[in-house]
Amino acid sequence: MGEVEEPALVQAKALVKRFGEFEAVRGIDVEVRPGEAFGFLGPNGAGKSSTMRMIACVSPRSDGELRVLGMDPGVDGPRIRARLGVVPQEDNLDAELTVRQNLQVYGRYFGLSRAHVRRRAGELLEFAQLTDRAEKTVESLSGGMKRRLTIARSLVNDPELLLLDEPTTGLDPQARHLLWDRLFRLKAAGTTLIVTTHYMDEAEQLCDRLVVMDGGRIAAEGSPAELIARHSTREVVELRFGPGEQERAAERMAGLADRVEVLPDRVLLYTMTGEATLERAHERGVRPVSSLVRRSSLEDVFLRLTGRTLVD
């Protein structure tokens, strides 16, 4: 007998969010399974946060179907919210309270007993690596510490589903890696994560599966490896040239790769075998200032699907 698949924790069909005439989310289908880290990846304005707010039951859907933890947010919002953890883009901690008080006061909102909240706060301080800062005010914390405290606070009610909106924006590399480590631990302990991000390395590190959103629609869906296999090549050759030389060099390399992309400062060759392609470019007399052969990344996929130009 095969295993019975657990029902999806989040299920959206033809989900729409309108603000007046503007359609921010334009009919998307999403399914998040128990125990996975699921990502919404996209440029600013793609509809990621609007989708997250509907899942978090703080913004009503305009159309389509949505089930969170098997319930309808339009009817069971309070019951769903009691079982969710939400980490907003902006830290909204109480700056005047101590680190420990922030956890305890928040825990009381869920109607948890004082003794339970006290014990849980101790565990979460340890988890967030903030035990030595417990009695300090939030004002005295660094950006990375505040972010860890915001995540710890979202875990006070032992949520089954944790929603993280742009969790590491504005953090330095060390703080980001420490935060990722904490999220890996949560996932290993069975918490389901939904993450929005516009950082490719974050999505590649954290997400088992993700959707790339653009203009309120889903442009692609799969694991990071599947998306790279489907929308890019195994390797990319980056060739840098002096000012104005890349156009001529690209003409010489026509047909050498699956795709040739000319950028203001370099030429990218998308190919299965980078070294062999680079050799053939040299044989055609192409002399770049520098060259690099690298594996294709999620960033290549993202830029191909959503374009390199900024959308304001």
From TrEMBL:
One of its GO terms (molecular function) is ATP hydrolysis activity. It is a peripheral membrane protein. This is Lipooligosaccharide transport system ATP-binding protein. PANTHER family: ABC TRANSPORTER ATP-BINDING PROTEIN, ABC TRANSPORTER ATP-BINDING PROTEIN NATA. Its main location: membrane. Belongs to the ABC transporter superfamily. Keywords: Antibiotic resistance, ATP-binding, Cell membrane, Membrane, Nucleotide-binding, Translocase, Transport. The keyword Iron does not apply. Coiled coil: none annotated. One of its GO terms (biological process) is response to antibiotic.
